[in-house]
Every structure is written in C-alpha cells, then in structure tokens.
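Marked as duplicate of an earlier ticket. Keeping the data here for the record.
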Amino acid sequence: MEGKVFTEEQETLVVKSWGVMKQNAADLGLKFFLKIFEIAPSAQKLFSFLRDSNIPLEKNPKLKPHAMSVFVMTCESAVQLRKAGKVTVRESTLKRLGGVHFKSGVVDEHYEVTKFALLETIKEAVPEMWSPEMKNAWGEAYDQLVTAIKSEMKPPLN
C-alpha cells in the first residue's frame, strides 16, 4: 500500500463516474461478471453457486446479487480511497474476502482478468467521460483494493 498516492484528480474522476454508474449498479455488476467469464470461462468454477448450474449465467438468480455487491463494494472503496488514505472495506470484510479468495484458489491472473473486465465495464458505462486518466484512476483504486484483499489471503484460523 505504501508509496502509491491516490491523487485529488483521480478521486474526482472516480467519484464523477461512480455518480453516473451507481443507479445502474445491478446491471453493470452483472455485465462486469459476464465479461470476466467471457475472458476466463474457467473462473466460473470458483463460484459454488455456478459450478453445477445449467442455468444460463445471465439468468442465474444468485449471480446478479453477488455481482452487484462486488461491483458496488469495489466502486465505493475507490470513492473513499483518497479521503481515508487507504482501502475502507471493513477489516472483517477484508478478512472474509481474503479467506474466501484463498479457499477458492484465486490467483494473480484472476485479479488481472477482473481488473480488465472492471475497466471495460466502466468504459462502456461512461464512454463520454472515459479517458486514459480515468482508466489509471480506476486501475489504481482496484490495485489498492486487491493488495488489501491479498494481504488477508491465508487459511482461516480454526
């Protein structure tokens, strides 16, 4: 986490674009996950509710709520980043996310695919705002969130 500063300009870009995307978070979240699975179909195996399902992804009743909560958490964490000076996902949530990602066998490549899918989803959601600076701002915010999750990726203590 050290060394990387999330600038005021980056914060402005993230806040402005999230303001536009927020009301459409459910559909954008689903789009985001469908992009992940389009790029890396094997990633579906990481989700217990998709593993043995014959339902088309976009109709799976558990995917949309899950996708929306991940998308909203990612975006809200980006919006808060500069004000807080760090990722603001609750520690208990980070520990849970780290544990789940560890148990599921998530590896660095999965985070890269997810980052690409996130940036593509945002680019399509706010094409008139999209710029290299906005891409960098969202990329930086995502990288800091991933670093926080990875720091908690360990076997649960029981």
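See parent ticket for discussion. The mean pLDDT is 85.
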